[in-house]
Amino acid sequence: xxxxxxxxxxxxxxxxxxxxxxxxxxEIILFGRDPVLGYGTCGMPYVIGGLIExxxxxxxxxxxxxxxxxxxxxxxxxxxxxxxxxxxTVEVRNMETxxxxxxxxxxxxLSPGGIARIPDLKGLGDLPLxxxxxxxxxxxxxxxxxxxxxxxxxVIGGGFIGIELIENFIHRxxxxxxxxxxxxxxxxxxxEISQVLGxxxxxxxxxxxxxxxxxxxxxxxxxxxxxMNFDVDFIASSIGIDLDTxxxxxxxxxxxPTKGIVVNSYMQTNDPDIYAIGDAAxxxxxxTGKPKNVKLAWPAHRQSFIVARHLAGNxxxxxxxLGTTITKLFAxxxxxxxxxxxxxxxxxxxxxxxxYEGRTNAGYYPDHGSILLRVHYDEQSRLILGAQAVGDxxxxxxxxxxxxxxxGKMTVDDLAALELGYSPPYSSxxxxxxxxxxxxx
Length: 441
Ligand SMILES: Cc1cc2nc3c(=O)[nH]c(=O)nc-3n(C[C@H](O)[C@H](O)[C@H](O)COP(=O)(O)OP(=O)(O)OC[C@H]3O[C@@H](n4cnc5c(N)ncnc54)[C@H](O)[C@@H]3O)c2cc1C
What we know:
Radius of gyration: 23 Å
Helix content: 25-40%
Bound molecules: flavin-adenine dinucleotide
Strand content: 25-35%
Number of helices: 11
Structural class: alpha/beta
Largest sheet: 5 strands, parallel
Number of domains: 3
Shape: globular
CATH topology of the largest domain: FAD/NAD(P)-binding domain
CATH architecture of the largest domain: 3-Layer(bba) Sandwich
Distance between the termini: 56 Å
């Protein structure tokens, strides 16, 4: 079986390796526009901040080694231009030589990810504007900072990537302002969580421009819609990602309401010989079964496994997604799984919320932490619908335990009965997760 893969980062390189294990006698060719193979995109903000000193640590393997160890043909710097579904071929351009050639397939896997949205800024002129989507973007930001030694910047967009950039710019000693058209950071999460994150930013000297936008730029001066103005040396934009589905659209593959490529539970598109995975695939919500697009690394990796098993004739199905996610902001961690209060309200789902605010572990233990944990649940069935937490310790484990509880179809009351590990450095005899169960009663 000859398998072509489009995209060679999270989903693409993972699915190639998975297929090699699951279908040992297949021929696999991996195409990617990026000159770097399968790097840890999620680590890029920390390379910019200097916490990870060597950018090459993000890269798992060189194309040569990957290719040799797994018997996979790796063609980086190659742009797949078109799919001919009738002939089962793709047209590919070597980006260095401009040579265009045709490659046939038995199965085609698309993992094209997305493209960073660029804001339209009046008067931008020579003021540098960066986005952070690829290894090359990261290198550009680092090169610029090292070469020009800027003192200040503005980050547009206070979502996950925005707040990670802010922390890392501050870490590099830059005076950093956040500009967001919303009234708070991290609007995916409940306002109570955003409030704690906002305070953390304030304590770390981030300037805020909420419910605001750049009206125009004059030289280095940002003139804001709300009347304020200030100077910056550069702008970093993190206002979202548009899915890179042009190739799929031109091949008449179905696109869903989330603008992702529609797939079944084995990640097959409406053409059974073409699969789509990663950011560009449209999945289902765990609770409602409605279309959901989750742009995170876990789905890309899980979907790679699902595709490999399907190709091997040993299929398992992809579950709906909870969208479990976590991020760090200075001394805090924020994480969520399942629905927020807003997404439940938008869906018209009635819910109750149990809240625990207190210590993560024994108060007499030096260096004890605090946590705000919010759990939404269905008041009739008592099933857990979502959870969010922010704090300085143990946020990851609480949200992961609750994500597991959701997938195990446990009720909020069951959380009280979970027998969790306790020792003063880590927890209390009644863990915050247990406390949620007691509180919900
Ligand atoms: C700064 C940053 C931080 C992140 N942090 C986290 C995190 O902490 N946790 C988390 O879960 N997720 C995080 N993510 C998201 C995560 O990186 C993505 O969900 C994941 O990379 C998606 O994998 P993918 O294979 O779908 O797309 P990508 O990894 O984006 O790979 C797609 C590749 O396909 C190439 N391509 C597209 N079209 C073609 C074509 N026609 N021909 C050839 N090549 C093509 C693209 O150029 C790209 O190289 C982060 C993302 C960014 C940008």
